[in-house]
Amino acid sequence: LEKQLLFLSLLCILSKVCAQLCRRPCYCPWVPPRCPRGSPLVLDGCGCCKICARRLGEPCDFLHVCDQSQGLVCDYSTAPAGTGGTCNFEDDEEGCEVNGRVYRDGEVFQPSCKLQCRCLDGGFTCIPLCQEDVRLPTPDCPYPRRVEIPGKCCPEWICEAQDQHLLRDARPVSPVLPYRCQEWGTEWSACSATCGVGFATRVSNQNRYCRLETQRRLCVVRPCPALPAAFPAVS
Question: What is the pTM (predicted TM-score) of this model?
């Protein structure tokens, strides 16, 4: 009993010495608190009294510290000024996992040569690095075709010669394509004439070979007004 009293007295003296380092007076209870499962006993913010460590999502402040063994810190980012915070994981613990690799929050990475991604708030957003442009036939390049170039990541447009294009078209083509054609097309343009017969254009692959081509159709916005009758000649 005397040893226990001596030990408690030493604890009380040590607690008073440590309390002098804090701005608030520190008085510890004789019996340490009983903590719930998963919450260990730790020293408070003053380093003098044993308290139960706060768990994830629980309120915290200078005295009531979070469980550092679980990587928790007192987060004041979302708390009003002058109030306590909430136990949360450190910022550097947040990240995202892509293809078995973990990236830090805010880190920019490339899962492939065609994508550039950024880790943000546990998820990630990506932008394509290859341009998805559409090249229309021109007089100097009547048969453009996009192909994969060895040693390069992004496909490029090439201009086929007319004889090569005719040879490819001369091959027997099955009426059923070996793959499913995903139809794509732009909206029809405005009519080329404000009155009378004109034409509208669009780019579409809705054809037998599922190839991009410029299509045209006739259009009439409104009939043109009749020309006024010529005045009779005056002698």
Answer: 0.32
